[in-house]
Design a protein that fits this description.
The chain has seven helices and seven strands; from the N terminus they run E-H-E-H-E-H-E-H-E-H-E-H-H-E. It is an alpha/beta fold. It has a single domain, classed as Rossmann fold, CATH 3.40.50. A seven-stranded parallel β-sheet has the order 3-2-1-4-5-6-7, sandwiched between helices. Helix 3 runs parallel beside helix 4. The longest helix has 29 residues. The radius of gyration is 18 Å and the shape is globular. The termini are far apart. Bound molecules: NADP nicotinamide-adenine-dinucleotide phosphate and D-gluconic acid (GCO). NADP nicotinamide-adenine-dinucleotide phosphate binds next to helix 1, strand 2 and helix 4.
């Protein structure tokens, strides 16, 4: 007799924090966790963004708690986690989604610009994970999902800092899995391919050669949508994935499997 039941995909009774989730991929994933039964909590860097997020969740019929916090600021993150524990409950699921990109040729990039990308995209997830792991250990379980990228595996012109950060985030994922797996904490990554969000809007402008390049480079022959990250997020947040640890689930329409079209 199998012990498996579809209930293992349910997130009922769980508290899920998704960083930088007022819009874009974070909003879609957080909404999906809410639809699967979790209590949704998100943060963003200012009140305007939090208000924008709260209105969007309300419109989607999802009750969400929004807080202001910068993921690179350890003091703010510790205060955020404490406040969520007091007001909502212990965080069962953390999705490190907040991130930025700077598209600048490496030799023209200042060290300050490099550091800002590394700080938000790599040090932020470290600070966030560090803040939630102690309570997860006490509770006896936890799920951490790091939002990686095609650039966790591939390079391209102008994205050196982003690729270094997302490659580092892949390894931080494996290290958290290695270090805290014995406490029933699973840390996995989701590596979105090219997804239609504000972050990629400049690349999708009418006539931009990158648009045609990505369509040709993707076996699915199209960009992905934020909603296509919903199922993978629910799976990795749920008990259905309890023996999946240190894995990066690429959701890329097949890009990483493909050598590219013959010219
Ligand atoms: P997005 O539309 O730019 O959203 C990112 C969110 O993170 C925004 O709400 C942003 O706020 C917030 N944020 C930035 N810095 C922050 C900080 N220090 N503290 C807290 N929140 C902060 O990006 P997206 O396209 O949805 O991407 C979400 C994640 O997926 C990112 O990690 C990105 O690298 C990754 N990703 C995206 C794609 C894609 O094709 N779109 C593909 C692979 C991976 P602001 O509005 O103030 O910037
Ligand atoms: C770029 C893109 C990418 C992505 C994404 C791909 O300029 O190549 O912005 O870096 O948004 O992370 O997975």
């Amino acid at each position: 007799m199998s012990n498996f039941s579809m209930d293992s995909f349910s997130l009922k009774g769980k508290v899920a924090l998704v960083t930088g989730a007022s819009y874009g991929i974070g909003f879609s994933m957080a909404s999906a966790l809410g639809e699967a039964g979790a209590t949704v909590v998100f943060n963003d860097i200012n009140q305007d963004l939090v208000d924008r997020g709260l209105a969007a969740y309300k419109e989607a019929g999802i009750e969400a708690h929004g807080y202001i916090a910068d993921v690179t600021n350890e003091e703010q993150v510790n205060a955020l986690v404490k406040q969520i524990e007091e007001e909502v409950g212990v965080i069962d699921i953390l999705i490190n989604n907040a991130g930025i990109i700077k598209r600048i040729p490496m030799t023209e990039m200042s060290a300050a610009e490099w550091r800002q990308v590394i700080d938000i995209d790599l040090t932020g997830p470290f600070i966030m994970a560090k803040a939630v792991i102690p309570s997860m250990i006490k509770k006896g379980h936890g799920k951490i999902i790091n939002i990686c990228s095609m650039m966790s595996e591939l390079g391209r012109e102008t994205v050196s800092a982003y690729a270094a950060a997302k490659g580092g985030l892949k390894m931080l994922t494996k290290n958290i899995a290695s270090e805290y797996g014995e406490h029933n904490i699973q840390c996995n990554g989701i590596g979105p391919g090219y997804i239609e969000t504000p972050q990629t809007a400049p690349l999708r402008e009418e006539g931009h050669p990158f648009n045609d390049f990505i369509i040709a480079r993707t076996p699915a022959a199209r960009w992905g949508t934020p909603d296509e990250l919903k199922g993978p997020a629910v799976f990795l947040a749920s008990e259905a994935s309890d023996f999946v640890n240190g894995h990066i689930l690429y959701v890329d329409g097949g890009i990483l499997a493909y050598i590219g079209k013959q010219p």
